[in-house]
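Revision sheet: structure tokens.
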Amino acid sequence: MKTRMAEFFVRDALAAANARVLALALAGVVVLAGCQNPDGPADGDGNENNTDTTAPVLSSGSVNMTSEDGTTVTVTFTSNKAGTYYMVLYPSTAQAPAKGEDVETAYNGGVTGNTKASATGGAEANTAVTININGLTAYTAYKAHITVKDPEDKYSSVYTPAAYYSPAGRLIFYISTSGFSSGGGTCHYLEAAPADIEGSHKWGGDGTSCSTETGIGAGAANTTALAEHSHGTVSESDLHEAARACADYSDGGDDDWFLPSKDELNQMYTNLKVQGLGGFSSFYWSSSQKDDDENNAWHQQFGDGIQYPFDKKSPRSVRAVRAF
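Predicted:
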């Protein structure tokens, strides 16, 4: 008898529950089993809401010179989320804003202090943004600091593009406001060829001392001297293969390329390779002989940045550079 009564009780309870669900459905209320969103939490935090709480992420940025003296540039970047961008341009020696809110604050402060240019506008998701800037100081290195604020007022981290391109679209790795002597003239920039010269190359001239220098601006003169240096013979060891490869190189109509000096090579490592730019390999020759050592010249390990003299007969990678 008790079992029979329990069955009636369960049946009546289920009937009442079904009736309540039906009534809610007829009233336009959607009832989900377990009260869970069938698409899952939109923001991945385990809470039941449809708000994406992730901040925007910026990438693919660069500063691109559009004039030979660097007074006009374009800044480009991409955001994975739509929102409002804020950009401030500082000299490269100035301290970057710590967070996205600071970039907006700097923008609102106008062009004063460290801020040499600023801009704001709309950023569409996964679409490149290009900002044109003019009136900058000639021959000066600048860095762009960018943030994007999405519709929920979440800021991206401060994004500072490392890539700085010349008007020819090549990576610049050294800028001098005062200028330096190179190839018989005064230059302000060093740019790298887009890729290594094909193959491996010996430094050459083993057994003969060559007069070279190590400083910034020395690479062009070193290369000219080495490429023309035959030591009175035409044997393979005397051809200074690495220097000749750079002297014979051409890109984009420019043919005034050279093998970088020891110090120029290190600038290329520090400002390109360390930043993940340039697609470099491992060991590179410079155009600088080790003092008066007739058997060794300076090369650099681009894995750890160490420079040391090495046997001139050893083949190494070569990346041509250019001054302007």
